Amino acid sequence: MLLEINDIHKKFGSGDSEVQVLKGIDISVEKGELTVLLGPSGSGKSTLLNIIGGIDSADYGYIAINGERTADMSEKALTEYRRKHLGYIFQQYNLIPNLNVKENIEVGAYLSDNSLNVDEVLRTLGLYEHRHKLPNQLSGGQQQRTAIGRAVVKNPDILLCDEPTGALDYNTSKEILQLIESIKTKYGNTIIMVTHNSAIKNMADRVIRLHDGKVRENYVNTNRVAAADLDW
Amino acid sequence: MNNPLNRRFFRELKDDIGKYLVIFIFLAGMIAIVSGFLVAGESMTAAYDESYEKYNVEDGNFVLANEASDEDIDSFETASQYNTVIYPNFYQQGEVSSMSSRATLRLYSDRTSSEAMNKVCLIEGNMPENEDEICLDRNFAINNEVTIGDSITFLGRDFTICGYVAMPDYCAPFEKPNETMFDARIFGTGIVTQDAFDSFDDTYIHYQYSWRYETTPKNDAKAKTMGDDYLEKLIPIVYTGGNSLVSFTPDYMNQAISFPDGDITKDQAMIITFMYLCIVIMAFVFAITANSTILKESRVIGTLRASGYSKVELILHYLALPMFVVLLAGIVGNICGYTVVKDFAANMYYRSYSLPTYVTLWNTNAFIKTTIIPLVAFFVIELVSLIWKFRFSPLDFLRQNITSSKRKKAIRLNSKIGIQSRFRLRVILQNLPNYAMIFIGVFFANVILVFGCVLSPMLSHYADTITSSLLCEHQYVLKNQVELANSNEGSDEEVDAERFGIQSLIIESGDWKEPVITYGIVPNSRYIDIDNFGTDDEIPIVSVSNALAEKFNLGVGDVFTLDEEFENRSYEFEVGQVIDFPGSIAIFMEEDAFNKVFDLEEGSFSGYFSNTNLVDEGILDESNVATEISRDDYLKISRQLEISIGDLMQLFSLFGILVFMLIVYLLSKIVIEKNATSISMIKILGYRNGEINKIYVAATSIIVVLSIVITVPLASMLMSYLVEALFMSFNGWIPYYAPPLLLPEMCGIGIVSYAVIAFFMTLRIKKASLSAALKINE
Lengths: 232, 778
Ligand SMILES: Nc1ncnc2c1ncn2[C@@H]1O[C@H](COP(=O)(O)OP(=O)(O)OP(=O)(O)O)[C@@H](O)[C@H]1O
Ligand SMILES: [Mg+2]
Known about the structure:
The structure holds 2 protein chains of 2 kinds.
Chain A: E1 3-12, E2 19-29, E3 34-38, H1 45-52, E4 60-65, E5 68-69, H2 75-85, E6 86-89, H3 101-109, H4 118-124, H5 140-152, E7 158-162, H6 170-187, E8 190-194, E9 206-211, E10 214-220
Parallel strand pairs in A: 3-8, 3-9, 6-7, 7-8
Antiparallel strand pairs in A: 1-2, 1-4, 4-5, 9-10
Chain B: H1 8-15, H2 17-54, E1 60-64, H3 70-78, E2 84-88, E3 91-96, E4 103-109, E5 121-125, E6 133-137, H4 138-143, E7 151-154, E8 157-166, E9 187-192, H5 194-198, E10 205-213, H6 220-240, E11 245-250, H7 255-296, H8 298-306, H9 311-352, H10 364-389, H11 394-398, H12 419-430, H13 432-468, E12 474-478, E13 497-509, E14 512-521, E15 541-545, H14 546-551, E16 559-564, E17 570-579, E18 586-590, H15 591-597, E19 607-610, E20 625-630, H16 631-674, H17 676-685, H18 689-727, H19 742-767, H20 772-775
Parallel strand pairs in B: 4-9, 6-8, 14-18, 15-17
Antiparallel strand pairs in B: 1-10, 1-11, 2-10, 3-4, 3-10, 5-8, 6-9, 7-8, 12-19, 12-20, 13-14, 13-16, 13-19, 15-18, 16-17
Helix pairs in contact in B: 2-7, 2-9, 2-10, 2-16, 7-10, 7-13, 7-16, 9-10, 9-16, 12-18, 13-16, 13-18, 16-18, 16-19, 18-19
Bound molecules: adenosine-5'-triphosphate and magnesium ion.
């Protein structure tokens, strides 16, 4: 077992405006698994992902990676945890606007002891000929691919993706999904992917559905479909 | 309906409190200082102008060798076409023997009669009523550490100090009207009752007569014509009566009267220059902060514009908050200016000068200059930069694509450079305009700082050079040519003294007139080493002091003209040699040449150089000495400058550091803010705080340190020009001097102040929220 999510509770606000977003989440994720996290808007998917990523903290419960609890880590140790183990892909890309494509990816590579070859990643992502462009000279899909590049170039143990295809069209979305799949096969990373597109669950090893702050479904997907064969 | 955007004001103010606070403090501080000084200055100038009528101030005075008869006085009054009224203002002058150090007192009678000129203003205590009471000039008393109730001994008589006065003809205690500088410790004035005055014998009396014209001259030019005419008519009357004229000083030439006014005017000019400097800096700051606000709010603006808000509505919205801060600063600044700073400035002047009491006057001129002009300027700058930014389309705003279009093409950097260095380089490139501003701002701040820091060491350096290049300890100028007591006995070696000839001439440069001391020196002098250029040249060749050469740009071979002050004679000289004598504006000739130039008999002389006190040693009788020039006289200029503008300088240094910190803080804050998303982004990626600092803080640090190191010498260079210009309006010359350690020290001050700011920046990075990157678009 790689990642253990144990009885996570999280609320926002206080008094009248208090919202209990996560009400005891228990999940465990095996190494090399692609987990798809589904759920309606506002169900707490991003919140959970942020807690896993060490960006946010839980009110109760813990996250353990290889048996090490993130809540026990100092600010500094958390940084090291993110640095060593995590790759993060956001819905809003969040590229660094004054660095070009290649440099954005190099920023990720710099952090890792066993980073992938930057040029190879650029080629894999089909960004090689765009490598000198700044983010605002790219299309949305190209930006998302750059963001993926930045995350995967670290070759992280765990890759967290928050709606990586949320803003993309059908074809581009599928390309991105195939890419994530191929990275997983190539390097064996553990991937947790948040999406509201339930078609995507078909490519997952494990499917988890959140509703009202609780895990409503958690099963291993036995008849996996290749990303290329997904349809919606 | 009330614009719902208005509800954001308070939140914006709170979010950006650092920025607005800094702007507020700087602006309010600047307005307070400038308006305080202008108000104090102008109120005092007004009081000073008023004093002309209030105290019946003279239009001039002359001193005669002997008392004039009543008939003579009548003819003096009608001598010129400009009729005058004459008032005898005799004085006794001698040393006060009972004070801590040697000081000369010039004593007048109390000038209480209705026709008296230069009536005195009582500052503290009472006017003298008994024959043993005396009022002293306030600064003279303070500088000599005597107070009301103390006793002093003057010309062998004891007096009790009963009050402090300010005398309108001695606002600045110049012993001689065209002296280089005054020193309120060495020379001062006082008054006693008429009876007390009359009871002195005539040994130390000076027959000074003050005059007023029937019609007051409107300006200095008119005063000069009238004065020249009066002098011309006066001389024959004086000399036919067997009397002689010792001095003739129209008001406009009398520094004792006009110096403080001139100084206040100069200070005001300096303060106003300083203010413009500040306004320029602030304008930069405003333009930049306006830009960065828009950049930060880019997506908000894009969305609002896309959903139908008009440009005008939004521009007004973004204009409101800074204008509110500026307005508040204007109000607070003026309040402080009229209270605290005004008192500070007035005290500063009272410490140097004996000015009549003043009433604070509302100063519209100052208000316009300090408050209206900057407010309008900032409004315009803010408005223009907003309008300029709002030229972009809503879509550009949404895409945050609102920086200048020419940088669309991404600059390529050699990928051999490590990614960290390349990242830092990118940050520098991205923020070039900001960094250019930092450079300019640091430059301005350093100019102000150099201004504040250089004066004091410059003056003490001057004092040191003077002391080391003094001709001798004592220079005696004689009333008449006397031999020294035991120099007759053929043992010339015994007496440490050497005769010299001296004349005072005037050098003119543009409108500026300044006395030049002309020395005739015996061959092979023991006190000064000059070349002998002989007496044969048509234009006499002379040695000039480096003070004269530097101030008036003279080099070897140059020919210059000197004039006699009262007579219309001019002399031409050629520079044969520049000698190291920074103490005074002077020229030197061999005795023979000197006597030839001034048509004097061979072997005549008018003074002695000596390293011993010839009077104390009994070698020279005091009654033969007209003046003694000592080390103190050479140091007067630096000492007085220290007194009169030392305080201002400290204020400037402080403000320089403040300006520096303000600019660097604001601009480096902008750099961090602009990159807030990127910073929290790379933090999420797992960058350590140290690594982030190495990118963002280090980029700014490199620029700030470079700016400091480059601009400190530049500022010092600029300062040397400004100081030279400043001394063109003073008698005497102090060369610009920055001590070797000053520049490194200033760099040090700059870097240390920056370190404080950098520390706050690293804190900011440490605290940067991780979710900023995630929440920004939601
Ligand atoms: N910082 C916050 N302060 C207060 N409430 C918050 C905060 N962040 C999230 N929430 C609330 O927590 C709930 C879950 O938010 P979260 O972003 O996790 O939802 P989500 O499942 O990712 O939804 P979506 O599919 O729309 O992205 C929402 O109701 C949201 O309003
Ligand atoms: Mg979400």
